[in-house]
Design brief:
Elements: H1 10-40, E1 47-61, E2 74-85, E3 89-98, H2 101-111, E4 115-120, E5 128-129
Length: 135
């Protein structure tokens, strides 16, 4: 016989709370893992000089396409596009989020034309990383 649609029991509430907790935990752990990978990626690759050639700022609203449990807010993405020689001319990008357009523009414009150190994958020179600590 089918169960009736009665009120949610205490056990049902606990299951709902646990499910929400698991979803939040997965989102937080995923973001922590992504941050760790970005911090360590390329640290042992050879470093070369690069010039920030193009800077841009774009508006994003994660409510349209949610990527993780803790990123449901609009933001400005500042992008630094840099050029490096290894052994041929290559191009790479570094991105950083901001909550304010003026801050994003000021940050990006402060690097326009600047020389920075980037780490290049020796097996694939088209892959490079501009690490935050190298800015």
């Amino acid at each position: 016989m089918a169960a009736s649609g009665g009120p949610i029991t205490g056990f049902g509430i606990i299951l709902i709370i646990l499910a929400i907790g698991v979803i939040l935990l997965v989102g937080i752990c995923g973001q922590l893992l992504k941050n760790w990978i970005e911090r360590t990626r390329g640290r042992n690759w050879p470093a070369v000089s690069a010039v920030v050639d193009i800077v841009s700022v774009a508006f994003f609203n994660d409510e349209i396409i949610p990527y993780s449990a803790n990123s449901y807010h609009p933001y400005y993405l500042a992008t630094l596009t840099y050029i490096y020689q290894y052994p041929e001319q290559q191009m790479g990008e570094y991105r950083r989020r901001f909550g304010n357009e003026d801050d994003a523009e000021a940050w990006a414009n402060s690097y326009k034309g600047e020389t920075v150190k980037v780490h290049v994958d020796p097996r694939d020179p088209t892959r490079s990383v501009l690490r935050e600590e190298d800015l």
